């Protein structure tokens, strides 16, 4: 028997693409560890520390940055977000796959990481609705947001989509079930790569 090193499945896509749902389902079926990000923003109603995010004070976040504990971090809309190396490296070395739901800015930092374990494990995929009309429909949500808010979300989404060429794999969204089957199939295929197996 050969041991297997874990896969780091990095998932990006615009708001409304369904990427978070895919990641959580994969984790819920015990197919991968869902990497939980840190943030300095306040919890939203219903969010739980350690499940949705690790909620840190700005000082705690700064100290961890200075200590080199983050795999990637960024400031978005005045709040800091980041992924701790401890959320990833230990799992990979134990042969556990890790799934990361991350924006294009964070994804670029992970790709630039020089840690050989990260470089060997990394697989990146960009998820997006099949058409701009579908994206607009998803971002419009329940119809309670103003046209200005929806327009801003659309602009941000299109800016994210402009980075899709940086990713190895693309998933053009269909139904939830179709998306998940293709998403899981990618992970299963990557597990078969000979390079991921360590022979005694």
UniProtKB/TrEMBL annotation:
Record InterPro entries: GK/Ca_channel_bsu (IPR008145), Guanylate_kin-like_dom (IPR008144), Guanylate_kinase (IPR017665), Guanylate_kinase_CS (IPR020590), P-loop_NTPase (IPR027417)
Asked whether the keyword tRNA processing is assigned, the reply is: no
**Domain of life of the organism encoding this protein:** Bacteria
Q: Which family would the database say this protein is a member of? A: Belongs to the guanylate kinase family.
| MF terms (GO), sorted A to Z | ATP binding; GMP kinase activity
EC id: 2.7.4.8
Q: Predominant location of this chain?
A: cytoplasm
- Residues annotated for ATP binding in this entry: 13-20
Name listed for the protein in its UniProt record: Guanylate kinase
Q: What does this protein do?
A: Essential for recycling GMP and indirectly, cGMP.
